[in-house]
Amino acid sequence: MRRRTLLATVGGGLAGGIAGCLSSPRRGSGTPNGEDPSTDVTIPAGTWPQIGYDSQHTRHTPDARGPRDDATIAWRSLGDRPVYPPVVDDALYLTEAWTGGTAFTLSAEDGQQQWSNSELPPMRWAPALHDDRLLVITREAGNVVRLHALDVASGDQEWVREHEITASSGEHPPISPTVRDGALYLGSNRGVIRCDAATGDIDWTAPLGPHVVETENGPTWRTDWAKPAVTADRVFTFDMNESYRATREVYAVDRRTGDREWTARLDAGDGWYLKAHAVAGADHVFVSALRPHVSAGLDDSPWSGAERLFALEAASGEVAWDWTLPKKTLSPPAYADGTLYVSEWYPDADTGRLHALDVSDGSNIWTYETDNGAVLSPTVAGDTVYIGQGEELAAVARADGTRRWRLEIGERSGPPVVVGETAYIQTNPGHNYQSRLLAVREP
Predict the structure, then answer these.
(1) Is residue 271 left, alpha or beta, with left meaning phi > 0 and alpha meaning psi from -120 to 50?
(2) Which end of the chain is more exposed for a tag (fewer CB within 10 A), N or C?
(3) Rounded distance between C-alpha atoms, residue 251 and residue 33, angstroms
(4) Is 123 exposed, middle or buried (0-12, 13-18, 19+ CB in 10 A)?
(5) Closest by Cα among 403, 381, 394 to 62
(6) What percent of the chain has pLDDT over 90?
(7) Would you give the end-to-end CA distance of the chain in angstroms?
């Protein structure tokens, strides 16, 4: 095993399902050579260690090439149980979703199972990799939460920690631990916990809100803290269950001490809530707020939800800009070198768009369009953005938004996990569905 040491107006569509470059591509914030000073540079090439790829959730893997010129399905695996998205080094590591208690690994070469550990309590979180350990969070009756470390070569448990370990409800999966520089950050039932990733020992706890809150409709205890986004200096999170407040609050704490640095209070409006997790760039942190359809899509009326994207100054929490999307995103944005890639869905026409935004001011660089369904889950690898569009996988050029290829998957897919020259695709993501895992490579 490898040892891991806009307010911009969107332009009109183009025929054929693609909109090209609406304006010249340009570099956004970041260092002059294009490197992001907050990027975790300790991630070895050829790995995907956690949800979001890195601790900032950028879904940008600069060392991966991905299937660049064409693509075909190299192998298919699973299809008989719900699982969380894989983490990857020389193999793929997965955990069963929600009620299952099995962690297992698949061969990157052909998708065959290599080992399986079914002696764990149920899991509501995806795993993360650190050195030669798979880090897994479990919860069983009595709300007993534990952090487990499994050997990646055998699946055997090396250690388990229970004392002072808590976790948010997991009502909005997939979430998982965040790992950076030898530390593990976990959304707890009150905020954030930092542990030593090698031993599980607690470094600090940051209580950011009560476990039980009083609302006009009575008390609620289901605080649901987002997977922490971690930079070199700060940890960012929010409670996804904060719709009971007049404002929505985003928190930043010092990465080394857990002391609160700032609280941003976003005036999103009644009925809005923050979704998914924060995405952290060089100078900004990005959060999305959703106002859902009042009928939850269970009737035939047009979908009336809306979404807003907020860019906060990472050092202060001040809102630098915000953008109201005409419709809805289905996944967090991806960030790479001063550009934010935001996917969008138009449910009335079942079409989608991918926007490239300059993070300095939210202005539009280019927009890609498709008539094949919702665009979702952008992942940036090298000079390509990989997206799901309807039941297809597509590759889009970062420079101008032109499509390079598209591949029929046949099912709704989750975020592409791109490692080396391969894109791993999970179909039917979610803890209520039986997922399939595909490896997509050049022929």
Answers:
(1) left
(2) C
(3) 30
(4) buried
(5) 381
(6) 60
(7) 26
The whole-angstrom separation of Cα 354 and Cα 285 is: 20
CA–CA separation, 237 vs 240, rounded Å? 9
Residue whose entry in the numeric block shows the structure tokens 């005036």: 267
Enumerate residue ranges in the chain where pLDDT < 70: 1-38, 170-173, 220-222, 243-246, 292-305, 326-327, 431-432
- Helix segments in 299-378, DSSP class H: none
**Other CB atoms within 10 A of residue 392 CB:** 17
Strand residues in 1-153 grouped as ranges (E): 60-61, 72-81, 87-88, 91-95, 103-107, 113-117, 128-130, 133-140, 144-151
DSSP-derived secondary structure letter, 302: P
Q: In whole angstroms, give the CA distance from residue 26 to residue 343.
A: 19
CATH annotation of 31-441? 2.140.10.10
Half-sphere exposure of 54 (CA within 13 A, CB side): 30
**Extents of the domains making up the chain:** 31-441
Q: What is the dihedral of CA 139, 132, 378, 273, to 10 degrees?
A: 30
267-275: long-range contacts, CB 8 A cutoff, minimum separation 24: 268/308, 271/243, 272/243, 272/248, 272/308, 273/240, 273/241, 273/242, 273/243, 273/248, 274/226, 274/238, 274/239, 274/240, 274/242, 274/248, 274/250, 275/172, 275/240
Predicted local distance difference test score (pLDDT) of residue 38: 63
Q: Decide the pairing of beta strands 133-140 and 144-151.
A: antiparallel
377's tokens: 């889950």
Neighbours of 144 (CB within 10 A): 12
Q: How far is CA 272 from CA 211, 288, 294, 322, in A?
A: 21, 10, 11, 15
Phi, psi of 327 (to 5 degrees): -130, -120
The neighbour count for residue 9, using CB atoms within 10 Å, is 9
Q: Could you give the 3-state DSSP secondary structure of residue 17?
A: helix
Rounded to a whole number of angstroms, the CA Rg of the chain reads 20
107-164 pLDDT tens trace: 999 999 999 999 999 988 899 999 999 999 999 888 899 999 999 999 999 999 999 9
> Encoding tokens for residue 383?
């000079």
Which residues, at least 6 apart from 296, have a Cβ–Cβ distance to it below 8 Å? none
